[in-house]
Amino acid sequence: MALLKIVKAGAPILKETASPVKTITKNTKRLLNDMAETMYEAEGVGLAAPQIGKSLQMIVLDDGNGLIELINPELLEASEELQDGPEGCLSVPGYYGDVKRSQRIKVRALNRHGKVIVYEPEGFLARIFQHEMDHLVGTLFIEKATNLRKVEE
Question: Domains in the chain, ordered, with CATH?
Answer without folding.
Answer: 12-150 (3.90.45.10)
